[in-house]
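Quick one:
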Amino acid sequence: MSVVACVAMALLMGYAIQRGGTCMVAALEEVVQQRRWTRLRALLEASLWVFGGFVLLRVLGRLPQLPMGYPLHWHAAFGGALLGLGALLNGGCAFGVVARIGSGQWAWLATPPGFLLGYALIERWSGPASAMPLALPVWLQAIPMGWGLLVVAAALVRLAWLLWRAAGRWRLGRRVWSPHQATLIIGLVFLLLFVNVGAWAYTDVLAELASGRFMQLGLRGWLVPAMFAGALYGGWMAGLWQHRWPSLVTLVRCFGGGLLMGAGATLVPGGNDSLILFGMPLLWPNAWLAFASMCAVVLLALWLRELWQRARTFGL
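Output:
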């Protein structure tokens, strides 16, 4: 795939994130407030699409070199908790930041610098986590051909179902996409970019910048601004840009949220997007532990907030 095609894929990914309102905090708020699992299931489905893509690529002998995984350790649970707290303070996870900036909410431009600083500080204090000696997970080393056929069959059935439900309603210019449509595109675009440029998630690119490895980024360094440009285009097309200067309080909150998320990403290691699109599909234990910890912290905080609001309503 050419450089232009890769940049176009990153643009499409940003566009899908903005239009789908893809965000872990929003997904868990939906669970607590509306007792619905639509957004959370969509995010987990994105991991499932990437998992199926890894299996199919392995069967076809096209799976690129994978970065080394990390053993299960307590840092992952603590890092996941910091990711959750940072996302709550920030008002959005890694995906949510892209969606908010794409909607012209300029205060969230303070989140990436906060992430860079948080990552750099914790990495200098704790040092990088030790990697496992095997780059390829054991379960991926001997995938039978039948698994590839099952993946293709399941993908076709799911695509047919989504297309049937979206018939006559799905347009690229729609103001809001369904979470499943957005995460389908995000997962497939991630796979295409993975095959062509290697492991890539925008928080991982930020982490490399914080570690002083910007000379190693190559094409991946161009994908981050392209993704944000796609989100901005999506917000502009939908008329969602909010032409207001952010308040100092919001800027500080976003920077602080980014700081916590950067610290958490150092300990896991990996940001929210990297967990969903890479660590969890590869069945890395530390990724699943961090994700569970992040969800538990966010759910607990949202539940306590709801209890407090009810108590105030009834004058308790």
